[in-house]
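Support case: user asked for a sample of complex input and structure output to validate their parser. Sending the pair below.
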Amino acid sequence: DAGVTQSPTHLIKTRGQQVTLRCSPKSGHDTVSWYQQALGQGPQFIFQYYEEEERQRGNFPDRFSGHQFPNYSSELNVNALLLGDSALYLCASSLPRSMTNEQFFGPGTRLTVL
Amino acid sequence: AQTVTQSQPEMSVQEAETVTLSCTYDTSESNYYLFWYKQPPSRQMILVIRQEAYKQQNATENRFSVNFQKAAKSFSLKISDSQLGDTAMYFCAFILGGSQGNLIFGKGTKLSVKP
């Protein structure tokens, strides 16, 4: 049973560029959440996708957008990259009506913006 | 707004000893869940233990246990018989009941287990 997978593992971009990160949820899960973890900080919630719609969103600008596909996999897109976007981006999957509200995390994508 | 505070940026413990990591949170809601996650250098965020706010009994998972004080809004993690593999960042996290998104994390505590 595969857990949450993310690609790529590492990514280096320059300011102003655009980036796409990908996530495949744990088998049987249909809800995907994205988090940004800056160095030395706890993860910050970006947004959550369920049934191909953005269901909740944290305090992130519109430069951050996402998509969920019919197979429940998801993409995170960031436009006009800033130096401050350098971070570990974590994807987490869950069941929509989980009794435990538990989220399962992937290994993350390390984004460096130069 | 909900907040989570971890007041210990770093801690160390000798192998086989016991260590307690502190966490406080703030919310006006009564239905919520609390978690401790472990993040080793491999970056994978791993769930250590969870606590439902409506349960008075403290959760326990093998060497890991919590001290949940709802009135004080405190949720500490005790690690017994510490092992070298416990070396990691530990994050306390909160989520409202019925909410599938919006896990709120503290800033983390870096735990080092020394041989």
